[in-house]
Write a structure and sequence with these properties.
Layout (H helix, E strand, L loop, with lengths): L2 H13 L4 H10 L4 H13 L5 H15 L3 H12 L7 H15 L6 H9 L5 H17 L1
Helix pairs in contact: 2-3, 4-5, 4-6, 6-8, 7-8
Length: 141
């Protein structure tokens, strides 16, 4: 295994996490040999320094906490990995509520909340549940 490729890959991974395909493209773009790059990627996977499944879950959780719709989350992960993921309605509901709590600034009417979530790509079943929960919570404070 080429020490130069390995050290460069470790340097990249020390700054942020990469999906396997992202790291492979970065190493190949840098001009490293394809076979040696594959060898380094296999080593990193064996050492558990490169784990696409864990990274997908972290990216999904981060997006839910940011309040992104399931469509946006799926698109983001598909662009990085080429794989589709499933997001449950409960996770999308949590994301919608997080977005409302963090970003909703208008007058708290049913119509305003629905429009706010609809414009951000949430499904209607999630919008209705999140809106009812958000408006009912606000009444108790």
């Amino acid at each position: 295994m080429d020490l130069c490729i390995k050290s460069y890959a470790l340097k990249l991974l020390s700054k942020r996490d990469y999906f396997e395909e992202e790291l492979k493209q970065k190493l190949l773009k840098k001009g490293f040999d394809k076979e040696k790059t594959e060898e380094v990627l296999a080593y990193l996977k064996q050492q558990n320094l490169l784990n696409d499944e864990k990274l997908k879950e972290r990216l999904k959780e981060k997006s839910i906490n940011k309040g992104e719709s399931s469509l946006k989350i799926k698109q983001k992960i598909y662009q990085k990995t080429g794989e589709f993921i499933e997001i449950s309605e409960d996770e999308e509901l949590e994301s919608a509520i997080n977005l409302l709590k963090r970003s909703f600034k208008k007058e708290k009417t049913f119509e305003n909340v629905v429009k706010f979530l609809k414009n951000r790509g949430f499904r209607y079943s999630v919008i209705s549940k999140a809106t009812n929960k958000f408006l009912n919570e606000e009444l108790w404070f």
